[in-house]
């Protein structure tokens, strides 16, 4: 290590030469931890650097999301995505903070990033976990679970400006989802939410039926007391 622990801790607490992020939503250690702009954990994963960044991510998301939505169901898939967005961003911040601490380099605190790529790598981990068939990449048959690591390396080589730690954070979250109680927690939340929605629907249906019955009874009472109005209220259950 290039310096002692005391100097590293001082460096992390008081980063020098801070650079401002290019957008109001970009994720960085400085903005999230030091300036407490926690909204970046959500919006940073939704913003993209340019149109091509967005197009590539959405194409990749479509291929993985369509498969996972079939397995999970729409509601659980939606809950999983909403959970992954802030979770991946938080892991990215943690990775850059640890890197700055280990390397004694405050520049890692100022690195800013945006995009949905980390979440897509999380979905890639889930896809390869549930897809048991071998993958074919460049004509070579591979074990499905190894493709996410190959893709991580290839993207870093092809596009050096991409965030290796950001993609690795996505893989970490995906593995954590599979091999921890997190998936069971999501299933429990979905079950509770589904039961609540079902009860709410039943109550609304009962209220509508009660309202309809009351309206029918009132109409019949009017017809009995005022036969002349029956022709006007014939459509409201009047014989």
């Amino acid at each position: 290590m290039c310096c002692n622990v005391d100097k590293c801790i001082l460096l992390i607490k008081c980063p020098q030469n801070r650079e401002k992020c290019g957008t109001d939503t970009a994720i960085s250690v400085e903005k999230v931890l030091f300036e407490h702009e926690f909204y970046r954990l959500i919006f940073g994963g939704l913003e993209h650097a340019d149109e091509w960044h967005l197009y590539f991510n959405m194409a990749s998301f479509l291929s993985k999301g369509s498969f996972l939505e079939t397995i999970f169901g729409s509601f659980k898939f939606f809950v999983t995505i909403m959970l992954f967005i802030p979770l991946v961003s938080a892991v990215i911040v943690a990775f850059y903070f640890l890197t700055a601490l280990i390397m004694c380099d405050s520049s890692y605190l100022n690195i800013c990033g945006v995009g949905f790529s980390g979440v897509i790598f999380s979905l890639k981990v889930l896809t390869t976990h549930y897809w048991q068939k071998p993958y074919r990449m460049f004509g070579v048959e591979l074990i499905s679970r190894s493709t996410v690591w190959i893709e991580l390396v290839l993207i870093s080589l092809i596009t050096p400006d991409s965030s290796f730690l950001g993609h690795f954070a996505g893989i970490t979250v995906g593995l954590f989802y599979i091999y921890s109680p997190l998936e069971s927690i999501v299933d429990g939340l979905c079950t509770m939410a589904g039961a609540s929605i079902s009860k709410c629907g039943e109550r609304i249906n009962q209220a509508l039926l009660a309202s309809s019955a009351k309206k029918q009874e009132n109409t019949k009472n009017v017809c009995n007391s005022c036969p002349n109005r029956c022709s006007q209220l014939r459509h409201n259950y009047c014989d």
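The chain has two domains: 22-193, 200-235. The chain is about 65% helix and 5% strand.
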